[in-house]
Amino acid sequence: MEVVLGPADLAAAKKLNYAGAGLTIFSFVLPFLAMALGYISAFSAGQAAGQGLGALVGLIFVTWLALRNKNALTQAKGRFATGFLMVSLAFTSVTKVVREDEQAKDLLRQGIAFAAQQTAKFADLSRRFDEVDLDSVLTPENITSPTAVATGKTTVARFRALLAERRALLQTYRADSGRFIDGLPDGEFKRGFQRTVDTNMNATVRLYADLDRTQTTWSDDISAVLEWSSVQSGKLSMRGTQLMFSSEPQRAELALLTSKLTAAEADLNRVVQATAAAQATAQEKNKANMAEAEKLLAK
Question: Using CA atoms, how far apart are residues 115 and 228, in angstroms rounded to an integer?
Answer without folding.
Answer: 45
